[in-house]
């Protein structure tokens, strides 16, 4: 199913608009969004609060529908992709089931897919180890900090080794140390599994560290302002990204490039688009 067709995009978004009807009138959250995320590619969305990042993620995840335009996930409709469990999700709210333990929450997608009990137990142990929660397997979500809950959600999203991960500020609630550790883990996991990732963040260094491309959005209505490809040293392979990268010149250059794109429309700082000024 997958190996023979590597050319199918993980996500294909074309001319997507989203208008919300509210009591005080219409809110255009997204305007003519076009974006293709290749299989295995890591794409981050960054932009000011309210620019439509979560809205766009919700459309991809079939939690809401576009007002116009089209959207597909591995060549399927958003709905079909959801039914086929084509992706794992980790969103702003951890979204754990309060009546299930940590272990029970992580095991849920495996249960839904009918994994054998022994294999499930082994996989859950491996995942909890990865997110550093082995000692909390039998706790309930309300006994955990926000950051720990978020790590459970991430483990759950990874449970089935999906070929697409949709992550909306998954590390927002984590302390800086844990956050960097999770970033490194995510780079490793996505490189190892070849999963495509669509990742929302407010952190420029986080976007730079993780991504192949950073999509910069502008607010009201949400549009794609610029797409910045990450060029990080001679070996730009994601698998080669390590902690040292954060100290490198090329890393800071990319942080500057994304920052300038975010402040686009400020001609003095950025100059004409595409012009190198570093
Ligand atoms: N269900 C809804 N009904 C009405 N308006 C909505 C709805 N959901 C989102 N919006 C509006 O759409 C716009 C985009 O919201 P969205 O949550 O996508 O922003 P965001 O980029 O994720 O912001 P943040 O960085 O703060 O998470 C906002 O103006 C918001 O008020
Ligand atoms: Mg959001």
TrEMBL record:
**InterPro entries noted in UniProt:** AAA+_ATPase (IPR003593), ABC_transporter-like_ATP-bd (IPR003439), ABC_transporter-like_CS (IPR017871), ABC_transporter_ATP-bind (IPR050166), P-loop_NTPase (IPR027417)
Annotated keywords: ATP-binding, Nucleotide-binding, Transport
Whether Cell division counts among this entry's keywords is no
What one GO molecular function would you report for this record? ATP hydrolysis activity
One Pfam annotation reads: ABC_tran
Q: Which domain of life is it from?
A: Bacteria
Locate the coiled-coil region(s) and give their ranges.
Answer: none
Q: State the name under which the record lists this protein.
A: Nitrate ABC transporter ATP-binding protein
- Organism from which the protein derives: Agromyces badenianii
Source taxonomy lineage?
Answer: Bacteria, Bacillati, Actinomycetota, Actinomycetes, Micrococcales
């Amino acid at each position: 199913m997958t190996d023979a067709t590597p050319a199918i995009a993980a996500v294909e978004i074309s001319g997507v608009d989203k208008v919300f009807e509210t009591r005080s009138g219409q809110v255009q959250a997204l305007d003519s969004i076009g974006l293709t995320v290749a299989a295995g590619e890591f794409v981050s969305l960054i932009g000011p609060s309210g620019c439509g990042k979560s809205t766009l993620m919700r459309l991809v995840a079939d939690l809401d529908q576009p007002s116009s335009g089209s959207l597909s996930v591995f060549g399927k409709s958003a709905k079909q992709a959801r039914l086929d469990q084509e992706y794992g999700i980790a969103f702003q709210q951890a979204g754990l089931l309060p009546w299930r333990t940590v272990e029970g929450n992580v095991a849920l997608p495996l249960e839904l897919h009918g994994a054998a009990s022994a294999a499930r137990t082994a996989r859950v142990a491996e995942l909890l180890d990865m997110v550093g929660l082995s000692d909390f397997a039998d706790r309930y979500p309300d006994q955990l900090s926000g950051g720990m809950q978020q790590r459970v959600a991430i483990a759950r999203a990874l449970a089935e080794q999906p070929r697409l991960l949709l992550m909306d500020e998954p590390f927002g609630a984590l302390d800086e140390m844990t956050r960097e550790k999770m970033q490194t883990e995510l780079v490793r996991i996505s490189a190892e599994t070849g999963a495509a990732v669509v990742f929302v963040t407010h952190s420029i260094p986080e976007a730079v560290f993780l991504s192949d491309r950073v999509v910069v959005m502008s607010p009201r209505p949400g549009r794609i302002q610029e797409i910045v490809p990450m060029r990080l040293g001679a070996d730009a392979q994601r698998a080669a990204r390590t902690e040292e990268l954060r100290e490198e010149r090329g890393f800071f250059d990319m942080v500057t490039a994304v920052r300038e794109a975010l402040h686009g429309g400020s001609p003095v700082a950025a100059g004409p688009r595409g012009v190198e000024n570093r």
